[in-house]
Amino acid sequence: MKLTVFGATGGVGREVVRQALAAGHEVTAVVRDAARLGVPAHDRLRVAVVADLTDEAALEPVLTGRDAVVSALGAASNKQARLTPVAGPAMGAVVRVMERTGVDRLSAVSAAPLGPECPEDGALLRVALHPILRRVLRDVYADLAVMEAAIAASAVRWTVVRPPRLLDRPRTGSYRRALDANVPGGKVIARGDVADALLSTLTDPSTVGHALGIAD
Questions:
Q1: Closest CA to 136 of 166, 119, 113
Q2: How far, in Å, CA of 131 to CA of 166, rounded?
Q3: Are 8 and 90 in contact (CB under 8 A)?
Q4: Distance between CA atoms of residues 117 and 150, nearest Å
Q5: What are the tens digits of pLDDT across the range 168-203?
Q6: 39 to 34, 153, 199: CA distances (angstroms)
Q7: For residues 28 and 49, what is the distance between their CA atoms, to the nearest angstrom?
Q8: Rounded to the nearest 10 degrees, what angle do helices 56-63 and 87-101 cross at?
Q9: Average pLDDT over residues 126-131
Q10: Which of 127, 170, 189, 213 is deepest in the core (most CB within 10 A)?
Q11: pLDDT (0 to 100) of residue 125
Q12: Count of CB atoms within 10 A of residue 93's CB?
């Protein structure tokens, strides 16, 4: 496939680029700073510098003629999300340009706290720890909620992937999935496995129009 990857310089996005190239895909990595990509040059890798991801005219060249989009966009901190939301505004522009250019498949990373509570999780997690986490990172999650709303309102075939806390570890290929739910007891997952989930959903029709919870 011909893929466009947003958020390619982040931990998950960089893994998406590496795994997509290893799988034989053609990748356009959209970045603000090409020096931060950290992926060796490859004949199937194009690096596109786009300073403003809400600039729809700038997005058209990186989306035209592509088969699918993978988004690993997200604020690096709660402060950043509060001052300059990233995922929500950018994704609104991305899906509009996708609709105009005929790119109809999207896989985007979000976060487990936007999913429903698992009845199987204990009261300590559901009543105490999870609400604290949502409060501490409320601006990050608010930005992701705007992103999810923009995706759901679009005409593209989408999947949202919701991981718990990310670990800087490579792909294992061994993780649990839950459609339209969070994984019971799911606390962590490797960034490499999040990238694997984002890519694998592109060819999994059962995930279209759904959120996918994942965790170790």
A1: 113
A2: 18
A3: no
A4: 23
A5: 999 999 999 999 999 998 889 999 999 999 999 999
A6: 10, 33, 17
A7: 10
A8: 60
A9: 63
A10: 213
A11: 64
A12: 18
Residue 170's region, left for phi above 0, alpha for psi from -120 to 50, else beta, is beta
Listed by start position, the domains of the chain span 2-215
| Cα–Cα distance for residue pair 80/214, rounded to 1 Å | 25
Higher pLDDT, 152 or 84: 152
Whether the Cβ atoms of residue 114 and residue 161 lie closer than 8 Å to each other: no
Fold of the domain spanning 2-215: Rossmann fold (3.40.50)
Confidence category of residue 26, pLDDT binned at 50, 70, 90: very high
